[in-house]
Automatic annotation (TrEMBL):
Residue ranges constituting the HTH tetR-type domain according to the UniProt record: 2-62
Protein name, as recorded: TetR/AcrR family transcriptional regulator
SUPFAM superfamilies: Homeodomain-like, Tetracyclin repressor-like, C-terminal domain
Gene Ontology MF annotations: DNA binding
Organism domain of life: Bacteria
PANTHER family given in the database record: ACREF/ENVCD OPERON REPRESSOR-RELATED, ACREF_ENVCD OPERON REPRESSOR-RELATED
InterPro entries the UniProt entry points to: Homeodomain-like_sf, HTH-type_Tx_Regulator, HTH_TetR, Tet_transcr_reg_TetR-rel_C_sf
Keyword DNA-binding found: yes
Protein keywords: DNA-binding
A UniProt-annotated Pfam family: TetR_N
Length: 200
């Protein structure tokens, strides 16, 4: 039998992503689940604690999904596009960018999320760049740590400052192309062009 607390977190996450962290109330979640609000408060004293639990769950899902993609041994350019597709699938129901919402309405939770993302995503970017250099897709002369910071800052600036998730997705594809062209060898550019063609 599924843990009631986990069930509340999962359903709340769906509602928050689809309709917004600010607009969804504890009453909305209780009504949607067919339970009393008192049942939710049994596990979460307030909405902020529930939001924090849902963001932690989503972060863990992202981490596991990225690890699964790494294990498939794609080339580094393909790997970046696979990661992009993973994020699209995870946030396909979101109307407003989740990071934008958190930054605007729940800054304390936003800062906790960003601390986690800084470590996880910087590690992924670094892994991808090093692999790309080793496999000949990225140039050997690039300053790896600088590139990690540049790309991380670019992606998260888009998500923090773009209201609509659909607009963020368009900008993220442009950022991925911009990033790859800046560091790729001819081999990497050829692989990039292939994936851009598939995404148009």
């Amino acid at each position: 039998m599924e843990n009631p607390k986990i069930k509340i977190i999962e359903r709340a996450a769906d509602l928050f992503l689809k309709l917004g962290f600010k607009s969804i109330t504890m009453d909305d979640i209780a009504t949607d689940m067919g339970i009393s609000k008192k049942t939710i408060y049994k596990y979460f004293e307030n909405k902020e604690l529930l939001i924090e639990a849902t963001t932690q769950m989503v972060q863990e899902q992202i981490k596991l999904a990225m690890e699964a993609i790494f294990s498939q041994n794609h080339n580094p350019v393909c790997e970046n596009f696979e990661i992009r597709e993973m994020f699209k699938g995870l946030f396909q129901s979101a109307h407003t960018s989740p990071l934008y919402q958190l930054r605007k309405h729940y800054p304390e939770i936003y800062h906790k999320v960003m601390a986690f993302q800084l470590e996880e995503c910087s590690g992924f970017i670094r892994h991808n760049i090093v692999k790309g250099i080793e496999q000949g897709y990225y140039r050997e002369d690039i300053p790896v740590e600088h590139i990690v910071k540049f790309y991380y800052a670019l992606i998260f600036s888009i998500n923090e400052n773009t209201i609509l998730e659909k607009d963020a997705l368009v900008l993220e594809l442009s950022a991925l192309e911009y990033h790859t062209r800046a560091i790729a060898t001819d081999k990497g550019i050829a692989e990039l062009e292939k994936h851009l063609h598939l995404n148009n």
